[in-house]
Write a structure and sequence with these properties.
- There is one protein chain.
- The protein is an alpha/beta fold.
- The chain is 34% helix and 24% strand.
- The protein has ten helices and 14 strands.
- Strands 13-12-11-10-6-9-8-7-14 form a nine-stranded mixed β-sheet. It has a five-stranded parallel β-sheet with strand order 2-1-3-4-5, sandwiched between helices.
- Strand 12 and strand 13 form a beta hairpin.
- This is Gfo/Idh/MocA family oxidoreductase.
- It comes from Hoeflea poritis.
- InterPro entries: Gfo/Idh/MocA-like_OxRdtase_N, Gfo/Idh/MocA_Oxidoreductase, GFO_IDH_MocA-like_dom, NAD(P)-bd_dom_sf.
Length: 347
């Protein structure tokens, strides 16, 4: 570590890199950005110049840097495997954007590579770090709301066709799918972390007339949870002009509604409780219309985990759960039947 600060490398300077950059600048007292790399030299120069970060000339230059402790991978999922192998074999911890990979088998391989090399693998599911999200999980885990009976998920987002006109976007080859693995994955992961594993799903997936793309832009379905609760979900990028995603959980003692960074709890005794502050979520035409505070807290947790030898808040192995759920939803739609999840053990 340079001067006691944790050395970080950034690989990828696309759209998703903006909140990471803001978070890294907020954490400059504990972090030393060792270099930024992108295959496009003009893009990496512009990105590094905008945020005052040094430029890395190659992946090897970062991986071989003795002062580099970890790499943040902000590349498309199709460009992950070789990077993970290179940094893990160099003994560098890895923080990676969602999804882990395009398929669950490939995601499992990435998790195994990191475990075999003894490095920490964290996944960027920043919605878990919202104040409202943490408050809801705390109340569910403590039993304050009582047993969960019903879970309702809504992701009514909008993307212009221009979004899908970018080469590879919305394809299986680059992204691994559509709205589920690229957008709704955040809400599904948060749901699993709060409400627990899903046991069975029945779903329909489709591509609406509003988009020209290979994968799905709409999914709806029902869920049965391991704890006996029932649930529903709807996720789309075809709902103009786009709205905030939400999770509603109906329990014995109260109903909780999580939306736009705010948690509202309606207690059955007549009380109403509100936690958090409203914030953008990127559900409209601007996918990056949200603050970087959640990224900052997630990166801080990852750095602390790497330095102390513990697991980060969201490990690669834990992230496999949402991959299994997405697989089951898509399988259900293809085969027109209910699908049971048998991989909740994360193996």
């Amino acid at each position: 570590m340079s001067g006691g600060r944790f050395g970080i490398g950034v690989i990828g300077t696309g759209m998703a890199a903006k909140p990471h950059a803001g978070a890294l600048r907020d954490l400059e007292e504990i972090l030393d950005v060792r270099g930024v790399f992108s295959r496009n030299p003009d893009k990496r120069a512009a990105f590094a110049g905008n945020y005052g970060f040094p430029i890395a000339d190659s992946i090897d230059a970062l991986a071989d840097d003795p002062e580099l402790n970890a790499a943040i991978l902000i590349t498309p999922p199709s460009e992950r495997l070789h990077l993970v192998r290179r940094f893990a074999e160099a003994g560098k911890h890895i923080l990676m954007e969602k999804p882990v990979e395009r398929t669950t088998d490939a995601a499992r391989e990435i998790v195994s590579i990191c475990e075999q090399n003894g490095v920490r693998l964290g996944i960027v599911f920043q919605h878990r770090f919202r104040q409202a999200s943490m408050a809801l999980k705390d109340r569910i885990d403590s039993g304050a709301l009582g047993a969960i009976g019903l879970v309702r998920i809504s992701v009514p987002w909008w993307r212009e066709q221009a979004y899908y006109d970018e080469p590879g976007r919305g394809t299986y080859a680059r992204d691994g799918g559509g709205v589920l693995i690229s957008q709704a994955i955040h809400t599904l992961d948060l749901m699993l972390s709060i409400a627990g594993p899903v046991a069975e799903v029945q779903a329909v997936a489709a591509t609406t007339p509003f988009h020209r793309m290979e994968a799905e832009d709409f999914v709806a379905g029902g869920m049965r949870f391991d704890n006996g609760a029932t649930g529903s979900l709807m996720a789309t990028t075809a709902a103009f002009p786009g709205g905030a995603e939400s999770i509603a959980i109906d329990c014995e003692a109260a109903s909780a509604h999580l939306q736009s960074g705010t948690l509202t709890i309606d207690w059955r005794d007549g009380r109403t409780e509100t936690v958090g502050e409203a914030a953008g979520t990127g559900g409209g035409a601007d996918p990056m219309a949200f603050p970087h505070d959640w990224h900052r807290d997630l990166i801080r947790d990852f750095v602390d985990a790497a330095k102390s030898g513990r697991d980060p808040a969201v490990t690669g192995r834990e992230a496999l759960r949402v991959h299994h759920l997405i697989d089951a939803l898509m399988e259900s739609s293809r085969e027109g039947r209910a699908v049971k999840l048998t991989a909740n053990n994360l193996n």
